[in-house]
Amino acid sequence: MTQEPPTTTEGPLLEVTDLQKYFPVKSSGVIRRTIGQVQAVDGVTFSIGAGQSLGLVGESGCGKTTTGRVITRLYDPTAGSMKFEGHEIGHLSKKEMHPYRRDIQLIFQDPYSSLNPRHTVGSIVGTPLLVHNAVPKNQVVDRVQGLLETVGLNPEHFNRYPSEFSGGQRQRIGIARALALNPKLIVADEPVSALDVSIQAQVINLLQDLQQKFGIAFLFIAHDLAIVRHFCPEVAVMYLGKIVEIGDRSSIYETPHHPYTQALLSAAPDVKQAVVGGRRERIRLEGDVPSPVNPPSGCRFRTRCWKAQAICAEQEPPLLEVGGRQVACHFAEPLQVVSSLVAESESEAPSLQDLSESGDAPVQVS
Amino acid sequence: MTEVLEAPQSQGGAPAASGSEPFLVVENLTVQFPTHDGLVYAVTDLSYSVEMGKTLGIVGESGSGKSVSSMAVLGLHDIKRSHLTGSIRVGGREVVGASAHTMRRVRGVDVAMIFQDPLTALHPFFRIGKQISEAYRIHHKVSKSVARRRAIEMLDLVGIPQPDRRVDDYVHQFSGGMRQRAMIAMALVNNPKLLIADEPTTALDVTVQAQILDLIQSLQREFGSAVILITHDLGVIAEVADDVLVMYAGRCVEKGSTKEILTKPEMPYTWGLLGSIADVVGDVSKPLIPIPGTPPSLLSPPSGCAFHPRCTYMDKVDGGPRRCETELPELRQGRRADHLLRCHISDPDAVYESEVKEKIG
Q: Helices B206-223 and A259-267, interaxial angle, to 10°?
């Protein structure tokens, strides 16, 4: 988030500054020397206000999941600071971290591997309550049943096993588990990408209801741009361990400034756009994401960027305020990528159409 | 992309499609699997056809029978463990009940398939080039070196850099997008007339997905092949397919041209699908409208219309919800001749315009 959230007076709920997470690459052989570092997350800064949600989008390998796991302290950060309600939690010991864990919970992507098949739903959802002594033992069942009801499951099913539920229902169990301790922040790591389309909408609506009801803040990690737009008023776009653009929903989606954001948006298939605009123009990125073990010098996107010039290889672009959002690019300028269906009116940004006519962008009519 | 490949004559290729019949014709296809728990009604009474040069998109949720029906086209179901009835004609040749010998000729030359997960579909132990040239040598009596040249040519065609070096790589040396390209190269090595792509981009990132969809489309333009694209992503369908077939619980519930189906859908399930997806444009404050409930079990599909337990428009039917629960709606013609739908609502168009359009708009 770029600005202080106006509602809170004591600062944001979570403040992450220059967060880094490197994984060592070891050589094979007996003495497993460290021969390199996977720079999974390299200097990420953002903050989330209480009850707000921030979306983190990017392609696989860009470090969005690692960021989520560092924040929940499933991984220890290599460097940087993470402040939760003003307290530094990045380097707390396991014991010191314990009280914070009830405030920060995680929803996982795959509802099939994130629930223990040998435990009943009651035990899965009730375990956090017991670990944190949140309610007296004799009230655990009541609380679990209440939670199941909250997420839209039959409370009578608390002694069933995960295998008796469908994918969408399992995801609801995962959500009930995350809710058990009344967290202040939920890190939702691709919470719907494993589900069928009709079920995705059910789960998204459930999460939105819960957010309104309990005022939970979300770090919503997903690769689906449309879902993130629907769920999060603030969006951060990651590429190869860095945030390349961060700002509010309308500025990111209507006038993206970073070439990568523009490419992502133009590549995302979208029913409404395809129907309205017919075949539309795309920015086509060449090749794959480079390896995070040995990222390109300067701007990490330069190897696939059509605007890249000498300066991009020499100087890393800082995240700067441009046009109401922060963007890390030497040549940041607005480009309207999504079809002008809605944005038509106010926006003064050139559209892909204009650029392809003047021959400025690597646009192809598909 | 390279210059046009020499189009090899397929050995004893399929007889020319008779008269005006489309290249692939599926008629009343029913696929059932006997299991310990009972009979699984995977596909029931499915009919469709695909012409050369056209792309048919098949959409549906997991378990709706979209993959099962297209695997039947390739004869990939073990006849000992499945019941297949109906007719599938590929270029005029009947596939259902065909001998293993006939099927080997159909596979690769007439019909090829791209699978969802390239990591499991490609062999980890053999070099990429060997896997591609093997497919070529089965259908063409050529030397290994000729087949290898052909493999390099194909890798170049699908846009793999330095194909003459990468041809000797193993699968694990390729990135996700390159693996999918290699599989496409393998599928296209014999210039198949019909390409079945089963969720070809589901495992890929959006920028790579765009590359792969572009590739499939440009290859289709170049060779004029027919394509069946199986996906659950309506966005992909909207951008690539000419026609759409919506499947639910093993049956076709709506079929028509892509534009027609996506702008004027006439079946409540399709309305539900369109209402469930978020967009990158439009009003964000508009809530998603999910389809309640979960997809049915194909062991005991619901009576009547299979969608009735999840349908919120049953009160619009003449004869009321009772009819939906007991009577299976026929696949009937909608507003236009090429628009088929399976629903009891007598004027779905009116319901859509008055109630649904604004909600899912």
A: 50
Alpha-carbon gap, residue A153 to A105, rounded angstroms: 20
Backbone angles phi, psi at A34, to 5 degrees: -80, 120
Q: Tens digit of pLDDT for each residue in A72-90?
A: 999 999 999 999 999 999 9
Flag whether B210 is in a domain: no
Q: Of the residues B143, B163, B187, which one is the last residue of a structural domain?
A: B187
Spell B103-134 as b/e; 16+ CB within 10 A means b: eebbbbbbbbbbbbebeebbeeeebbbbbbbb
The reply to whether ipTM tops 0.85 is: no
Is residue B69 a part of any domain in this protein?
A: no
Range of B132's domain? 125-187
**How high is the pLDDT of residue A280?**
61
* Model confidence, pTM: 0.86
Taking CB atoms and an 8 Å cutoff, what residues of chain B touch A265?
280
On whether residue B151 sits in a domain, the answer given is yes
Q: Which two tokens stand for residue B4?
A: 């046009």
A273 to B259: CB separation less than 8 angstroms, yes or no: no
Of A168, A227, A366, the CB nearest to B214: A366
Question: Nearest 5°: CA angle at B240, between B239 and B246?
Answer: 95
Contact criterion met (CB < 8 Å) for A226 and B277: yes
Q: In this complex, how many residue pairs, one in chain A and one in chain B, have their CB atoms less than 8 Å apart?
A: 147
Domain presence at residue B40: no
How far away is chain A from the Cα of B129, in angstroms, using its nearest Cα? 20
Tokens of B307: 């969608």
- Residue B183 shares a structural domain with residue B269: no
pLDDT band per the 50, 70, 90 thresholds, residue A279: low
Count of structural domains, chain B: 2
Listing DSSP states for A46-60 in one string gives EEE-TT-EEEEE--T
Classified as helix, coil or strand, B348 is helix
Q: How near does any CA of chain B get to the CA of A200, in Å?
A: 7
Q: Which residue of A has its CA nearest to B181?
A: A287
pLDDT digits (tens, 9 = 90+) for B219-246: 888 889 999 999 988 889 998 999 999 9
Q: Exposed (0-12), middle (13-18) or buried (19+): which is B266, by Cβ within 10 Å?
A: buried
Domain final position from B157, B187, B217? B187
